[in-house]
UniProtKB/TrEMBL annotation:
InterPro entries: Pre-rRNA_process_TSR2. PANTHER family: PRE-RRNA-PROCESSING PROTEIN TSR2 HOMOLOG (PTHR21250). The lineage of its organism: Eukaryota, Metazoa, Chordata, Craniata, Vertebrata. Pfam families: WGG (PF10273). It comes from the Eukaryota. GO terms for biological process: rRNA processing. The keyword 4Fe-4S does not apply. Keywords: rRNA processing. May be involved in 20S pre-rRNA processing. This is Pre-rRNA-processing protein TSR2 homolog. It comes from Cyprinus carpio (Common carp). The keyword Kinase does not apply. Residues 118-186 are annotated as: Disordered.
Length: 186
């Protein structure tokens, strides 16, 4: 097939960005800093690297794209993708590249639009009673963060009394694999 023209390349880059930004595995890796202090920049670089991989290689197969993305995730984020999502991501990117090559740009734009809407829907979840409870817990966790020091700490300049759970408030369970799971009683 013919190489992509400049405007189509830009559209393909936008498509790759939309796919990667809605991929939960990559977003978890970025949100949790698996790639270090520059995780967000690495995710943005991945868009360019993946786009360039398609430009530099003729007739890529889905399994080659899977391997490439897997290597990027492993090398840049120390993450092994084993949740089954990698084939879906690779397939989606391959299909969009083929559509760009075939000048089916309207279809690509529509898919990008759907992915962006999906990302926005996940970014602004409706507040449920369970979510409200989670907010209370996160406020408690923030109050428990400390700078160090004995007996008390300050969080954002305010004095906070050190909180201790009574021994019966935590339950320890030994798992078969040797890990100890600590569960908080509610």
């Amino acid at each position: 097939m013919a190489p992509l023209v400049s405007s189509t390349r830009e559209l393909f880059a936008e498509a790759v960005r939309a796919v990667l930004e809605t991929w939960p595995v990559l977003q978890i890796a970025v949100d949790n800093g698996f790639g270090g202090a520059h995780s967000q920049q690495k995710a943005e670089w991945m868009v360019d690297a993946l786009q360039q991989y398609f430009i530099d290689n003729d007739e890529l197969q889905q399994d080659e794209v899977e391997d490439f993305i897997s290597d990027l995730m492993n090398n840049e984020f120390d993450t092994v993708v084993d949740d089954g999502s990698l084939p879906q991501v690779a397939q989606q990117v391959c299909e969009m590249f083929q559509q760009c090559q075939q000048d089916r740009l309207t279809e690509v734009r529509e898919q990008i639009k759907q992915l962006i809407q999906k990302r926005r829907a996940k970014a602004t979840p409706a507040k449920t009673p369970a979510a409200a409870d989670d907010d209370d817990e996160s406020e408690d966790e923030e109050a428990m963060e400390c700078d160090g020091g004995a007996g008390g700490a300050s969080v954002n300049g305010a004095a906070v009394k050190e909180q201790h759970l009574p021994p019966q408030a935590a339950r320890h369970e030994e798992e078969d694999d040797g890990w100890t799971v600590v569960r908080r009683k509610k």
